[in-house]
Write a structure and sequence with these properties.
Layout (H helix, E strand, L loop, with lengths): L4 E6 L7 H15 L3 E4 L12 H6 L3 H12 L2 E5 L9 H10 L17 E7 L7 H13 L3 E9 L15 H25 L1
Parallel strand pairs: 1-2, 1-3, 3-4, 4-5
Length: 195
Amino acid sequence: MKPVRILMFSGSARRDSINQRLVEVAAKKAKELGAEVDVINLADFDMPLFNQDLEADSFPESARALREKMIAADGLLLACPEYNGSITPLLKNTIDWTSRPQENVAEGLVAYHGQVAALIAASPGGLGGMRGLVHVRAILSGIGVTVIPEDLALGSAYQAFDENGGLADDRMDQRLDKVVKGLMRTAKALRQEVS
């Protein structure tokens, strides 16, 4: 059987993003479990602020390329920074562009409908980005994504990583294990259902 393909990215384009660091830890775990992992940085997929007038003029090639990566994946793992208790503008804009119909893709939600996703977050605050995860979960669920119940909100994130780049707290590390395993298990099950 082919390995499960997981696309992972952070909703932050910031250099030294704690959420991108968390993605790297999750990617290592998924690879150790046999997944084929594609870690991307949204900074490499520059898109203008979504506007239907821009959409009518030309669909960004970066949005098209990212949507193709999403379609090719069996599952998505998103690390979702929290801005003012909600989703980052970068992540929302990415979802808005990659969910739009375009020529040869009549159904804009093709990258999302029937997809499975896991959500994680890291924040310097005590709640670990949990409030933002609620909003991302609602948005993705509303466009047809099965968002697994396992998630991780990593608080005090500047102190959460050890010298090797892993998670210093065993409980948080075990929770991330559950998230990655839950995503892989659900992605496999949905892939078999479709075939």
